[in-house]
């Protein structure tokens, strides 16, 4: 025992040194964006590997419910296929020669299916980790959609070779341009970190009517999501006294606690659009 | 004794302001920035315990960080510099020194002082610029920044040292 104490007293400068280094490292990681992102991607890689292993094991246990979820999803897809086919038939029956489907232009959006291998949705700064990374074509700023219950899940924050982290709707840093269906005025959708069922649509001009029950959809302005993806319904609208804007409380469709599979949205023309906007100096 | 410490405190804040207002603005060829606040660590008395030295370096680094919006980066580099000071003193200082002395060109001789200061400054610069880039993506650029800043810092520190010894002569 005395030897131990002697040892510690003798090497107290090492402990003090490590303590100071520890504090500096904490400060660096918490206050410098670039260093933070480096640290996060390293942590991602390590933690992602660990989660991939545990998830491989636990996914066997959850196979049954996953199957059910997929079947439900297939069912919804099937119904949409039926609907679209019937419409197509109608068009053919009408022999509509104005219908013109260009085949030289690729589809604007591709979808990459991915599985959630870690999610943290109980705190304030929530994160989701997916099992697809840059090797599969995932990049930062791609949108993420839910599968079984339709709706926006979040936006990819960063991706390394095999994993990516997503800022979900339930994070104060999440911001997405949305609008009320059938109106053109858009505003940012944010989360007020109070209730995981609700989010706020801000900066909506005062004259735009928002009645409870109206559907809120993505505006498509951000080049992240396609236009018109349903997010939720209007719960209540609140008029700010000294403000020219309304903020509207939205009940979200998506239940982040209940999803396992997501689709990552890849906008094939995003770079093109951003380049053009940058060239014209429209990007701030 | 106490007057010496008043001088040290003045030097402490003088170097911080000089670093923040003057030397942080210098980016020679877009690469080299002299980090001369280390001069404070270099001229602490030799008998000073290493824990206070480390702590002072850490606080000094934090001050610089606070002004240059790099919270923690100078602190970690300065802490390592303060920690390594005793080792470079043991390595490069001639054996026949009195118990307490203030490391300077006058007390150590130019060669020893250059080695002593150079080793600490080089270590500090390596840590700082590595933490700043945090990758080996551009090793040549990293090396150039370290080497360029090292030479600039050493020139300024040796200039300080010559001014300082002139003052002591009077």
Distinctive features:
heterodimer, A: 284 residues, Thrombin, subunit H, six-stranded antiparallel β-barrel, 5 helices, globular, B: 170 residues, mainly alpha, Arp2/3 complex 21 kDa subunit ARPC3, 7 helices, 72% helix
Can you walk me through this structure?
The complex is a heterodimer of chains A (284) and B (170). Chain A contains five helices and twelve strands. Chain A is α+β, with helices and mostly antiparallel strands and 284 residues long. In chain A, the strands form two sheets. In chain A, strands 1-2-5-4-3-12 form a six-stranded antiparallel barrel. In chain A, strands 6-7-8-11-10-9 form a six-stranded antiparallel barrel. In chain A, strand 10 (230-239) and strand 11 (245-252) form a beta hairpin. In chain B, helix 6 (110-133) runs antiparallel to helix 7. Chain B has one domain (2-169): Arp2/3 complex 21 kDa subunit ARPC3 (Orthogonal Bundle). The longest helix of chain B is centred in the C-terminal third of the chain and has 31 residues, at 139-169. The two termini of chain B are 18 Å apart. Chain B is mainly α. Classes of the chains: A alpha+beta (284), B mainly alpha (170). The interface between A and B is medium-sized, with 19 and 19 residues.
**Percentage of residues in helical conformation of chain B:** over 70%
> What would the principal axes of the Cα set say about the shape of chain B?
globular
Oligomeric state of shown chains: heterodimer
Q: So, the CATH homologous superfamily of the domain at 176-253 in chain A?
A: Rod shape-determining protein MreC, domain 2
- Range of strand content of chain B: under 5%
Assign an overall shape of chain A.
Answer: globular
Largest sheet properties of chain B: none
């Amino acid at each position: 025992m005395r030897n131990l104490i002697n040892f510690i007293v003798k090497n107290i400068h090492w402990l003090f040194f490590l303590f100071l280094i520890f504090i500096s490292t904490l400060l660096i990681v918490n206050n410098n964006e670039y260093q933070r992102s480096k640290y996060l991607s390293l942590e991602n890689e390590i933690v992602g590997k660990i989660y991939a292993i545990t998830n491989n094991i636990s996914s066997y246990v959850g196979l049954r419910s996953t199957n059910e979820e997929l079947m439900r999803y297939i069912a919804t897809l099937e119904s949409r296929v039926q609907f679209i086919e019937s419409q197509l038939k109608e068009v053919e029956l009408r022999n509509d020669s104005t219908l013109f489907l260009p085949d030289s232009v690729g589809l604007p959006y591709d979808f990459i299916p991915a599985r959630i291998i870690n999610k943290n949705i109980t705190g304030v700064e929530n994160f989701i980790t997916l099992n697809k990374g840059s090797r599969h074509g995932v990049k930062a700023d791609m949108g993420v959609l839910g599968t079984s219950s339709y709706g926006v899940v979040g936006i990819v924050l960063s991706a390394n070779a095999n994993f990516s982290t997503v800022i979900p709707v339930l994070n104060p840093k999440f911001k997405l341009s949305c609008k009320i269906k059938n109106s053109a005025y858009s505003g940012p959708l944010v989360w007020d970190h109070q209730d995981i069922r609700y989010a706020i649509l801000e900066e909506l001009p005062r004259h735009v009517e928002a009645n409870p029950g109206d559907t809120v959809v993505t505006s498509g302005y951000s080049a992240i999501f396609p236009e018109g993806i349903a997010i939720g319904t209007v719960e209540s609208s609140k008029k700010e006294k000294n403000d020219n804007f309304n903020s509207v409380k939205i009940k979200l469709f998506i239940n982040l606690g209940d999803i396992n599979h997501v689709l990552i949205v890849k906008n094939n023309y995003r770079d093109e659009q951003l380049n053009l906007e940058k060239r014209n100096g429209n990007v701030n | 004794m106490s007057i010496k410490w008043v001088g040290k405190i003045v030097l402490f804040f003088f170097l911080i302001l000089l670093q923040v207002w003057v030397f942080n603005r210098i980016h020679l060829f877009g690469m080299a920035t002299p980090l001369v606040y280390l001069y404070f660590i270099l001229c602490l008395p030799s008998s000073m315990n290493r824990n206070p030295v480390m702590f002072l370096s850490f606080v000094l680094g934090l001050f610089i960080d606070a002004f240059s919006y790099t919270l923690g980066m100078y602190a970690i580099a300065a802490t390592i510099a303060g920690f390594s000071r005793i080792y470079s003193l043991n390595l490069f200082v001639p054996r026949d020194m009195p118990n307490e002395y203030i490391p300077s060109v006058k007390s150590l001789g130019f060669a020893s002082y250059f080695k002593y200061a150079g080793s600490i400054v080089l270590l500090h610069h390596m840590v700082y610029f590595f933490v700043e880039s945090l990758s080996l993506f551009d090793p040549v650029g990293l090396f150039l920044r370290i080497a360029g800043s090292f030479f600039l810092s050493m020139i300024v520190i040796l200039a300080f040292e010559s001014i300082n010894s002139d003052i002591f002569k009077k």
